[in-house]
Amino acid sequence: MKQAKLKQAPVPEYDFTREQQKNVYLPDEDTFLLMDAIYNFCDVKVNSALEIGPGSGVVITFTALNFQLSTYKARDVNPTAVQMTNETLVRNKLSPNCELGDMFTDLNQKYDLVIFNPPYCVGTCESLGVIDKALSGGANGREQIDKFIKGARGVVSEGGLAFMVAISANDIKDIIKCFDNEGMQAEVVLEKKLPSEHLHVLKIQHQK
Ligand SMILES: C[S@@+](CC[C@H](N)C(=O)[O-])C[C@H]1O[C@@H](n2cnc3c(N)ncnc32)[C@H](O)[C@@H]1O
């Protein structure tokens, strides 16, 4: 892992209502680490991007601005997150291209850059509110991560990249092995140890 002399990604403008503050995952350490990883380790030409689970919308907005993209899309299962992401995009003079949607369902296009900061916490979100779906990833925190691993090959263009956040409790070694089984090569490009969890950002590409 190369972590020396990182450039810090510029954070786009965003704001939120009381309802959004209550129901949307707002930018946090993992969000900023993900943007820093994209900013420092995206070493391919990117013409299009997809973010799964944009929450506040700052990551897809940063990506669209930084790579000057005309083709980008975001989708979230949380309607309030969809609304906030579209507001963040518009606030930064971009088109509101976020839709309500579950992971890769009914996507018929491949993207050069695919981004996911999943609900990675260990625990269940059964009968919990919508904000918990932003956090809780089931028994080992892998519910949505495993869906992403299975589908990534079908949505990342040849020569393209994906960036995904995970924590130690998700079993990083096993995640890399599972990507490998799906024909994708994954490596950790950034890490940050917090008191509560050990964040990792994985860079994923088609096996050569
Ligand atoms: C940890 S938050 C990350 C939000 C934002 N990307 C960030 O980095 O701050 C996870 C987001 O994924 C969304 N999400 C969870 N499962 C999803 C799925 N299957 N398809 C689309 N979005 C999903 C949640 O609603 C939430 O907004």
Automatic annotation (TrEMBL):
<protein>
    <submittedName>
        <fullName>Glutamine_methyltransferase</fullName>
    </submittedName>
</protein>
<dbReference type="Pfam" id="PF05175">
    <property type="entry name" value="MTS"/>
</dbReference>
<dbReference type="InterPro" id="IPR004557">
    <property type="entry name" value="PrmC-related"/>
</dbReference>
<comment type="similarity">
    <text>Belongs to the eukaryotic/archaeal PrmC-related family.</text>
</comment>
<feature type="domain" description="Methyltransferase small">
    <location>
        <begin position="28"/>
        <end position="175"/>
    </location>
</feature>
<dbReference type="InterPro" id="IPR029063">
    <property type="entry name" value="SAM-dependent_MTases_sf"/>
</dbReference>
<keyword id="KW-0489">Methyltransferase</keyword>
<keyword id="KW-0808">Transferase</keyword>
<dbReference type="InterPro" id="IPR052190">
    <property type="entry name" value="Euk-Arch_PrmC-MTase"/>
</dbReference>
<dbReference type="InterPro" id="IPR002052">
    <property type="entry name" value="DNA_methylase_N6_adenine_CS"/>
</dbReference>
<keyword id="KW-0949">S-adenosyl-L-methionine</keyword>
<dbReference type="InterPro" id="IPR007848">
    <property type="entry name" value="Small_mtfrase_dom"/>
</dbReference>
